[in-house]
Design brief:
This protein has about 140 residues and is mostly helical. Helix content is about 85%, strand content about 5%. It is built from five helices and two strands; from the N terminus they run αβααβαα. The protein has a two-stranded antiparallel ribbon with strand order 1-2. Helix 1 runs parallel beside helix 5, helix 2 packs antiparallel against helix 3 and helix 4 crosses helix 5.
């Protein structure tokens, strides 16, 4: 059961992050294609790749893969200045990371103050993923 919750957490975490990135790009840039299926497929692939990278638990890899995919998709799917797309994506992903970090610090502070121990590694990771999305 812990594994199911863990994988659902990975998927939801990736879904929220990708949704924020695509909403951001939709508001700032004009779409290159009128076909919605292209953007839906791009979201699905982005979510799947990000979930796999999240499962590895390497923060720097997560940051660079998210940045690379967001920039690549931004350049291919939206019209606008390439440098502007990359700079905006860097700023957005840094803000997402900062809010996730802040959320984790707050959650772990309260867990320590309330003396709550989470024994299962998967449940601890799920709690971290949930906290990330609450504060994003």
């Amino acid at each position: 059961m812990d594994n199911v919750i863990y994988f659902v957490g990975l998927f939801l975490s990736s879904l929220v992050s990708v949704s924020i990135i695509f909403d951001f790009m939709n508001k700032l840039f004009e779409r290159n294609y009128k076909n919605q299926k292209i953007y839906l497929m791009a979201r699905i692939v982005f979510i799947a790749i990000l979930a796999i990278v999240n499962a590895v638990h390497l923060s720097f890899l997560n940051f660079f893969v998210t940045l690379a995919l967001a920039s690549f998709l931004g350049i291919k799917l939206y019209s606008g200045n390439t440098k502007k797309i990359i700079i905006y994506n860097v700023c957005l992903i840094l803000c997402i990371g900062a809010s996730e970090f802040t959320g984790l610090v707050i959650i772990h502070f309260f867990l320590n103050v309330l003396e709550i121990d989470i024994i299962s590694k998967e449940m601890n990771i799920f709690l971290d993923l949930a906290a990330n999305q609450i504060f994003v």
